[in-house]
Amino acid sequence: MIKKGIRKQIVMHYFIVVFSALLLAEVIFLLAIRTYYYDSIYSHISQNIRNVEDIYQKFKPVSDDLGSDDLSYMLSSFELKGTELQILNTQGEVLINLSEFQPDVAIKTSDISQALSGNTGRWVGRQIGTKEDVMAVSKLEQINGQDAYIIRYITSLEYVNDKLLNVTLLAVSVGAAVLALVLGFSMGLANSIVRPLNNITAVSAQMAQGKFSARVKGDYRYELGELAATLNYMAEEIIRSNQVKDDFISSISHELRTPLTSIKGWGETINSGGYDPEETRIGMEIITKETDRLIGLVEEILDFSKLQQNEMKIIMGRVNLKELLQEIMLNLWTKAEKRNIELRLNSEDRPIVIGDANRLKQVFLNLIDNAIKFSHEDSAIDLIVHEENGKIITQVCDTGIGIDEEHLIRVKDRFFQVNPLNGGTGLGLAITQQIVELHHGNMIMQSKLEEGTTVIVTLPLPKKEDIPGELI
Predict the structure, then answer these.
(1) What is the domain range of residue 178?
(2) Tens digit of pLDDT for each residue in 262-279?
(3) CB contact at 8 A, 427 and 414
(4) Where are the alpha helices (DSSP H) in 273-343?
(5) Which of the pair, 6 or 447, is modelled with greater confidence?
(6) 449 near 461, Cβ under 8 Å?
């Protein structure tokens, strides 16, 4: 007994389909064989009637009343081996026949009515006296253009039916053998599907218990192969995500510890007293700087959390990108000046977009700050703004260290850092990407190692129906 499951479903479906098709084919085959044999008997008797009629044309009684001699002569002339011959009048009464049995009543079977209508009648049924299956074939004969008598042949179908029974038993045996083969084949097919599924299920159970090193082994094909590959890929991604998470926790712990150590150290130093005002001023500057750094880290984490939960609020308005970039350049001018990096802006007049000014400032501040961080000294960073195909395109181009192809495809992933030693949470570009998408735009990064990086931010132009607002 096959237990419930996919295996049973597959076996049952195959078995039912093949059984139905086989049953239909056997029924059609047996009906065709039966029809063939019955039609052959009917054709043989009908052909005999036609042949005898051609010969019998020489004998035509002048009178409508047939004598006993006439009937006997007709009986001997139309006789056919293996059949019983009867001559009936038009009322279906038997005038003479070859057997000793003489029916007392008129014959009313369908072959008689067919013969009276001018056709060669045929009837298959059970003989009243002998109770055997017979076929009766009747034909109306005329004398002087008048319906005179009916020639009726009766032949037993017992022999034919025995042969048909043997053929039926043979067909059933063949069908049973075919069904047995199909059952075996379907069970093999079901096993070939269920066995990999059981393996995949077992591996999935291990992964559910946290054993992400488990893998689906085996060269499976088609959908099963895709399922196994997807499951293995999922496990690899979970391991990678866990590693990224661990790296992030380690990195953020270091990032938080460093400024806290400085704040605590200078706080204890200042609290102890005995230092001159200049040293106290320097300590307070360091405490302020490190506090701002902590606030930036916390805000970055909070922003990412809001984006993940779709809770970040965007206040839309009309924003002049040129003025926004000029403001950012002023904010970062001191940092760029320390490394002798020139910030150059090439923009169309008043490039207007619809967006949140503060969030867009966060986007470009992060991009330009990264460009400064990874540019060589005595270099330049170009900020290019232009309109193209109904879009405002902003490019941040540097000639810095660049990013290799392996890291470029992952650089916008959350928590990912090309070089963890550079500090940060690895969330900056992930947040930037999501903010741009919230503005119905997109961000593309192009980079080559030691040749520089270009970040392209595309934002839609405002429509006429957009609500006007103050430019920043």
Answers:
(1) 1-58+157-200
(2) 777 777 777 776 666 777
(3) yes
(4) 277-308, 321-338
(5) 447
(6) no
- DSSP notation for 59-99: ---SSSSPPHHHHHHHHHHS--TTSEEEEE-TTS-EEEESS
**Number of separate domains in the chain:** 4
pLDDT in tens, 152-175: 899 999 989 999 999 999 999 998
The two structure tokens encoding residue 92: 């279906």
Report the amino acid identity of residue 354: I
Strands lying side by side in the sheet with 452-460:
342-347, 380-388, 391-397, 452-460, 442-448
C-alpha closest to that of 368 among 334, 336, 396: 396
334 and 443 share a domain?
A: yes
pTM: predicted TM-score of the whole model, two decimal places: 0.47
- Beta pairing class for 391-397 and 452-460: antiparallel
pLDDT attached to residue 226: 86
Q: What are the tokens at 28?
A: 């059609």
- Nearest CA to 461 out of 348, 353, 315, 347 is that of 353
Across the range 209-225, mean pLDDT stands at 82
Q: Give the pLDDT score at 403.
A: 83
448 belongs to a structural domain? yes
Question: What are the structure tokens assigned to 142, written together?
Answer: 């005329």
Query: For helices 428-438 and 357-373, what crossing angle results, to 10°?
Result: 150
Residue 131 lies in a domain: yes
Residue 362's closest CA among 449, 405, 302, 408? 302
Q: How many Cβ atoms are within 10 Å of 56's Cβ, its own excluded? A: 16
Examine the domain organization and report whether 110 and 183 are in the same domain: no
Residues 6+ apart with CB under 8 A from 202: none
Same domain, 152 and 162: no
Flag whether pLDDT at 470 surpasses 50: no
- Could you tell me if 12 and 94 lie in one domain? no
Burial group, residue 345, by CB count within 10 angstroms (0-12, 13-18, 19+): middle
pLDDT at 472: 40
CA-based nearest residue to 238, from 269, 276, 211: 211
Q: What does the alpha-carbon distance between residue 177 and residue 183 come to, in Å, rounded to a whole number?
A: 10
Q: How confident is the model at residue 62 (pLDDT cuts 50, 70, 90)?
A: very low
Same domain, 336 and 449: yes
| Total Cβ atoms within 10 A of residue 115 | 25
Please indicate, yes or no, if residue 211 is contained in any of the structural domains: no
Q: Residue 372 in contact with residue 335, Cβ under 8 Å?
A: yes
Show Cβ contacts of residue 191 under 8 Å, excluding neighbours closer than 6 positions: 7
* Residue 27, phi then psi, degrees to nearest 5: -60, -45
Contact (CB, 8 A) for 385 and 404? no
Q: Rounded to whole angstroms, what are the CA distances from 374 to 85, 109, 332?
A: 116, 108, 14
CA 13 to chain centroid: 20
